[in-house]
What we know:
This protein is mainly beta. It has one helix spanning 97-103; strands at residues 25-26, 32-37, 60-68, 74-77, 86-89, 111-116, 127-128, 134-136, 142-152. It is built from one helix and nine strands; from the N terminus they run E-E-E-E-E-H-E-E-E-E. The strands form two sheets. Strands 1, 2, 3, 4, 5, 6 and 9 form a seven-stranded antiparallel β-sheet that branches. Strands 7-8 form a two-stranded antiparallel ribbon. It catalyses: [protein]-peptidylproline (omega=180) = [protein]-peptidylproline (omega=0). Pfam families: FKBP_C (PF00254).
Amino acid sequence: AAAGGLAGGPRAANADATVDASAVRSTKGGAKYVVVKEGACPKADFTGLLGSCEPRTGSICIIDYTGFLPNGQVFDSTEKKGGKPLAFKLGSKQVIVGLEQVVSQMLPGEEVQALIPSALAYGEKGVCTDGGECLIDPNTNLKYYIKLKSVAAPPV
C-alpha cells in the first residue's frame, strides 16, 4: 500500500516508489517518516548516558538532508552547500518544526524519508519574496531525506 507519498530520496532508486503503510512512523505533531537505514547508539555511548545516542532538547544534531517539493524538485540540500552537514540545537527553532520532530526520534546513522505537513514547515507564508515569487508556495507539504550523522549532549 502506498503511504502518504513517502518516496524519493537522493539514494532512492525510484523516486515514485511506495512504501508499506505498516512501516510509516509518525511524530506527535503529525510528520510522517519511514526508516530507510537503521541507526544505533555509538559504541562509546551504547547506554546513551553520554548524550550521543538519542537527541533531546538542547542536543546538537548534525544532519545531511535533501528537501523536495511535492513535484519532486529539490529546493534545498546539504549537498548543494558544498557537502557540509547542517548542525543545529534541537528545540531552538533553527530548523522547521517538522524536521526537529523527526530528528528527535532518530538514532545516529539513521536515514529516513519524511513527509512534513505544511503546518510543521513554512505554513501559510511559504518561502516567498516581497514581489510574490515563491521558492515554496504557501500551504505546501514537503518531503525530506534525512541522515542523522551525530548527536552531542546539550552544553552544560
